[in-house]
Batch of 2 targets.
Target 1
Amino acid sequence: MNSQLTIVKVGGKIIEEPDSLNTLLKDFSRIAGYKMLIHGGGRMATELAEKLGVESKMADGRRITDEKTLKIVTMVYAGLVNKEIVVQLQASGVDAVGLTGADMNLIASLKRPVKEIDYGFVGDIKTVNSRVLSDLLSQGFVPVLAPLTHDGNGNLLNTNADSIAAETAAALAYDFNVRLIYCFEKNGVLRNENDEKSVIPTLDRELYQQYKSEGVIKDGMIPKLDNAFRARAAGVQEIVITSAAGLNIGGGTYIR
Amino acid sequence: MNSQLTIVKVGGKIIEEPDSLNTLLKDFSRIAGYKMLIHGGGRMATELAEKLGVESKMADGRRITDEKTLKIVTMVYAGLVNKEIVVQLQASGVDAVGLTGADMNLIASLKRPVKEIDYGFVGDIKTVNSRVLSDLLSQGFVPVLAPLTHDGNGNLLNTNADSIAAETAAALAYDFNVRLIYCFEKNGVLRNENDEKSVIPTLDRELYQQYKSEGVIKDGMIPKLDNAFRARAAGVQEIVITSAAGLNIGGGTYIR
């Protein structure tokens, strides 16, 4: 039987507020077995861009990444956020290693082709180097991945952290029994977005289609759930969408 | 016989100018055998600090690192500079991995005690995890180290890149036949700082003391050479102080 691997994706306010990040990392450090963390860092990049007078442009919730913006997200994601997580985990006895997809050629991606929108230096994942990740894990390291990949031609590419979580989970599902946990600002996928108690406990493809057609599930939840169902189809054993506290107390929406 | 390991330290203008960095990385990618790169990034941090309205304070050529400055150097060193180097090396077929001393617990340091000057979040190296570096090298990876270490209690510490180069070279001298090359803005240690042709070809401790007492060697060269002699005493086989071009064409000052 394969060993258990827990992959936690964390983003949004959890990353931005030192106290909530600290609590999450403490909970993460207590997870037994192999583990890996993938983080975003969105609004902190927006804040730095503002201070530097670089305009943040978004399209469908994705950041349009020109050359200046790429430098900003590289500083914030690979520098500030990634190393803050690594140094805190090390202090909790977790042998963390902070990496982008360029390091060790972990994640190669394709610059998104220009159609209606030119997203700039944004990458869609092509391959995940699961062998190297698997080696790091079996050597006792805990990879902490920043949402940047590369094209192999000398360009870093800004890459959605949910997609990195889904694709790495899928790639590692051959070697491990993978549990993928998306921690975000709500308690799970909600039936009513204003009621934190309306968590949908389990969601399969059929119910997902139904909720989408009814407009119960919409906006930013759709790409997140598409990623989750793709990982599920690729053999990821358990997928949960939950709050930061969910890492400790359980709960959230299970993807079947 | 131990395998050859080349450690290149690069800083100053070489890092700041895209063309010179590019040339250096191309030369570095052609070095045969095991290799490792250690970089600085000083003035780029000063520039970002200026843009963000954070005052840069220096004492004896070292940056005083308060909390805001630590965030800036983390963004610039571990983010911008480190990942630019990694992504370019990957494009040249070098399987680079960008790391700080916090990653994999590679370099633990002590926050410098406050005497006449409070340097803030500045670290003096305590231990180098040579086993992990050695494993990375033997697995075919090329470590690219940013000048940040950690105290094991959750703090990153700004650490002089020359010292990181000397200490890692010394720690790896048990497992490898180490060649340490400091690339900087001049052709080597100069007899006359205004004459690039006045390179001192070899320097032993005796001659170093003599040149120091005569005022021929002074200022920023002194900590650089102290580091180099310390590494030499610790068993590093070959130490050269040279220009970026020296990596390709040879020359420079050899430390005996």
Note: Chain A touches chain B through 39 residues (CB under 8 Å).
Target 2
Amino acid sequence: MGKKIKLGIIGGGGDSLIGVLHRVASFTNDNFEIVGGVFNPNWEENIGFAATIGLGTDRIYKDFDTFISQECALPAAERIEVVSVLTPNFLHFPMAKKLLENGFHVICEKPLTTSLEEAYILQDIAQKTKAVFAVTYTYTGYPMVRQMREMIREGAIGTIQKVDIQYYQGWINPVIHDSEKRKAVWRLDPSKAGISCCMGDIGTHAFNMAEYLTGLEVNSLLAALNTLYEDNSLDIDGTVLLRFSNQVRGLIRTSQIATGEENAFQVKIYGTKGGLLWEQEQPNAVTLLSEGKPLQVYTPGHPYNSELSLKGTKLPPGHPEGIFDAMANIYLGVAQAVRKEPYDAGEFPPIRDGVRGMQFVAQCVASDKAGNQWVDL
Amino acid sequence: MGKKIKLGIIGGGGDSLIGVLHRVASFTNDNFEIVGGVFNPNWEENIGFAATIGLGTDRIYKDFDTFISQECALPAAERIEVVSVLTPNFLHFPMAKKLLENGFHVICEKPLTTSLEEAYILQDIAQKTKAVFAVTYTYTGYPMVRQMREMIREGAIGTIQKVDIQYYQGWINPVIHDSEKRKAVWRLDPSKAGISCCMGDIGTHAFNMAEYLTGLEVNSLLAALNTLYEDNSLDIDGTVLLRFSNQVRGLIRTSQIATGEENAFQVKIYGTKGGLLWEQEQPNAVTLLSEGKPLQVYTPGHPYNSELSLKGTKLPPGHPEGIFDAMANIYLGVAQAVRKEPYDAGEFPPIRDGVRGMQFVAQCVASDKAGNQWVDL
Amino acid sequence: MGKKIKLGIIGGGGDSLIGVLHRVASFTNDNFEIVGGVFNPNWEENIGFAATIGLGTDRIYKDFDTFISQECALPAAERIEVVSVLTPNFLHFPMAKKLLENGFHVICEKPLTTSLEEAYILQDIAQKTKAVFAVTYTYTGYPMVRQMREMIREGAIGTIQKVDIQYYQGWINPVIHDSEKRKAVWRLDPSKAGISCCMGDIGTHAFNMAEYLTGLEVNSLLAALNTLYEDNSLDIDGTVLLRFSNQVRGLIRTSQIATGEENAFQVKIYGTKGGLLWEQEQPNAVTLLSEGKPLQVYTPGHPYNSELSLKGTKLPPGHPEGIFDAMANIYLGVAQAVRKEPYDAGEFPPIRDGVRGMQFVAQCVASDKAGNQWVDL
Amino acid sequence: MGKKIKLGIIGGGGDSLIGVLHRVASFTNDNFEIVGGVFNPNWEENIGFAATIGLGTDRIYKDFDTFISQECALPAAERIEVVSVLTPNFLHFPMAKKLLENGFHVICEKPLTTSLEEAYILQDIAQKTKAVFAVTYTYTGYPMVRQMREMIREGAIGTIQKVDIQYYQGWINPVIHDSEKRKAVWRLDPSKAGISCCMGDIGTHAFNMAEYLTGLEVNSLLAALNTLYEDNSLDIDGTVLLRFSNQVRGLIRTSQIATGEENAFQVKIYGTKGGLLWEQEQPNAVTLLSEGKPLQVYTPGHPYNSELSLKGTKLPPGHPEGIFDAMANIYLGVAQAVRKEPYDAGEFPPIRDGVRGMQFVAQCVASDKAGNQWVDL
């Protein structure tokens, strides 16, 4: 480590939950210092928020364009190096694009963009500028998710033959049944949320997890989405059948009307030798099923854990780390990449994962519109 | 209760697991006495098994036809009243048919028959003879399954909006990857197992559970089955998308290649007010999710349980009953029906449930063959 | 197996829970047939109950003495061989004594007697008559309890260094706080329950489990009992510190005022290599902790299980068996002993275990009375 | 919030685990900025560590005395306000004393001191200087621990009648059985660890939790400690019987030879209406047992949670926060106290809790030495 990396933040002010998550993550491993940004389009709130979090206001800018022009006017050594984009979805693309074009590294919230075309454009630019670009699929930062990835890679469950990933929430139930209430939800408004609600918001996490863990690519899918009401145009529930590169079958199950569920993101992967089970709400345990043997539960911080898992664990076994620590591990990965230190490909989700997510959403919608037909990915 | 009902058993000899399950179930509530049957087509083994279980050999018959003719020759008061058919699947139809035609009540293992046509024929005869006919979907005998049924009926989770039922096992993994081994498995032989392995064996349990619990009917389905190898013709894994009568969506997930899983039959049902979760491997707990409230776990034997649940619980809370007790509850239901005592429709699965199961399997195969198209049920 | 063993039952009529438990257990493995007994001191109820459970009334006797005299008058080959004593505690001694003296084998509910002296007398007689004598510490019949015993014996956790056994229930809470109500509870009446309520009823199970599993003997103990109210003379809660034969320390924690607990009998045993954890309310899982390795969960019915465990498991993995099956395993053990077939010492608790239980209760009360001093056992 | 509070840190350099825990906690709620300290007695390591965590070296001092003199020489507005003492136990007293005498607020790791006398002295000084003084019993920072405290206060389980707190670890097992290895462990060296190993290290957490949650005081105790080997003078396992102010009984069970356990700190508290169960390894769930009702599981972030719990929860339900977040909540409490903002007494453990912890350890040792006699507290 050493000198801290200068971090700027766009968005995430006020009582933004994603804001506190990124701030704490940036501090956690002593790699970043927040030096400025634009927390809010409203100047009073912007500057007020900076004060609230104890930040000097020299480099709090009135808007994104000013941020770019002023920062670029600074000597290279003083300039913000990495920018976290925490704005509403439709701003991800124009901001990330301009940041890349002006030489910044980018940490961008998911979904990467609101259309697949934008995603491809961003990916092209990022490849040209050789910037570090991370898409915050936060859950890949959990040590036990990384442990699963390594175990699969090393053959702990043999050749994969079945993938089943669930992401069930109940948060939309209280609004979906009232036509007035549901109109007021931005995630159900196509002009703000894009072509999908449920698949875009949580289906992408499930899809990313599937490819992250297995090292396989999904080749085609069949999606059945549910909008529940005729006057609601975006999915709030859906099941997606998957065929992976090597004919492996799988499925992704998502719902925002699984009433009473909190954030029930669950992974089940089976191979020729055994299976792996993980639940986000108990992130510090991975269950390994092995044919003919007692099941085993892996927990973080042990010598038996993979290097990638241990790198993301700060305390000894039995001291639960949580989602802030998962995000911190992604920031740690970015710091290493920015400093050109060695790091593992599993340490942060690159822009490719953001693009894949956009492909997934687009094809889910296409399959559903076609009457639940198989479509390529 | 009072005088015991005379029970005959066809099949279930030797080290048959289903045999011991039915025998213990018949004893448990003091309703039945086993008076005879045909345990095995081989006379030595047949008679030997009767001795092993301490049964007199007077009414052990050399074959099914002799069973029928000899029992029918007895005075009505001495005759066996109920016959449990525990034979291989393809014998269910001819035996159950003849039993019905000769005035016996029947308890038949699932699947009811090997074809849908046979199922319809049996149903017709059963309706004419007014016999009691139970199909042993054993899992519906668990007190907490019955509790869920009653809770749903009484509105505990509001109007159902999502049904997700899993039945994962790993038992076929050790044989499926070796072409010689898999040829030796009767469940993978269409001449013995019929048109389906996985859907017929465990998919039917999941389907029955879906309709049993919700009180809804599945109207159409889209199935994607997996045989894993080209030279294997029967499914060993599959996902089925469901549309229920009132447009409710659901899915059934089954696998016999979920390596390391034992008997992971799991239910998740969500409504407008909450959700219900149950796992067969922990049968004595039902989790009720209620929007905005702490989750609750219901266990058997409490005054707060439904009458239907309590009727199936013999001991106070905290004394785990298991699958033998679930089957015993089904036998209790049959005993009441035979004695023309009042009983609840949920106390044993009637022949209609066996027919529905056959419809389900047939349409899963049809949907898959059609390239994963929606088909009516 | 073969010819069934003739079983008599004393007590257990009406809606007795222990009655149905013993009856089902006796049927389960096809070893016993109930041929007679005395279910109730009231003749109408006695004979009525026999009818209810479908039993012929020839050998239902009006009282215990008649049972003895009439049965002894029968030819040896027709005589009842084993008698299950399910009466209130104070009758265990006189009945078991007379049964032994008249050549019967005995299955006796716990606690064995109401005083230690009686226990020693019974033990002496049993040794002389060489009768089979089982005390139904039911929980030792669970396959996973037997699995633990074998694992410990084989060194899975190394040398034992810590034993912690909990038995928490909440059933007495609703009555203990009302002086009228608590007077009406027979378990709190010294004339019926003897010198202890909590230790006698559930502490003895915990104590038996400690010695059953570890193969060690408790050498001394320090007990702190709680009666909660001055006008209540029997313990309803208590903690007992233990010193085992080899200086191993342990403790037993019991309560009947652990409000809301059902039957939370939990075992934690640690050795130099690892630990074993088991909970009665989830009886089909044993957790093995091994230093430096992922924890493992053992379940019944696998080839990896011990022979003693497998002998007590009737179905394949994932088909939960319960407490009826645990008791059935004890009856199976008795059947083998009666038939002079080989059996493992762990298959049923012998009279010695009943005597040890009485010693334990007596010394807990003595230690507590002495102001929580160490006393020898 | 607003201007950040100037924080100094003594100790916690190198790969100190407690160091990273405090640093992240101080950042998390944007209240503190670390401006200096003494991370290590070795100057090279001290200054090197500061660089590693990206801290300017202006206010990194060569030793504690220099820290005091230099900081005190600064204008009040620039001076460090709060100092976290993360040094070995024996330094807590002299450092905290001098810090208090020079007007600093103190956050001190537990145990507060190495003797009870020192604890009393510190408490006296702290009361005189009116400094904010927090002892980091970290586990009280968990939102669900705070939820339990509030639920008990509001009568959710009625009047408390039984307290059972476990703290089992296995970490000392690998060293305790080898006489050379155990001599090398500082926690087993009385000159460094004081009069107790197990009770001092983890027993104090259990004791603090007991009083924190119940609002009761322990009046007397009986302790049985275990050193396992004659040549080991400090306890590595022990059980403590408790009598609380109102005659409530309880116990604390601790072990460092519970082989295979990680950090199994578990709480069970029962009252006249129900019980509460919590496990540190699953910190985001509290189980409420209520007589005659289904058990309930409370999780963080819901409107049904207490204010004190919600204040310590940053994200919506289902996003697990961990032990870093628990410590952050304690720092938040301190920040409010330093700023003289309103805060709840449950937001950080005051010096009194440190003193109580020292009393507890002293009396455990005294009771054990007296042959397991009751001693007052």
Note: Chain A has two domains: 5-139, 143-304+350-376.
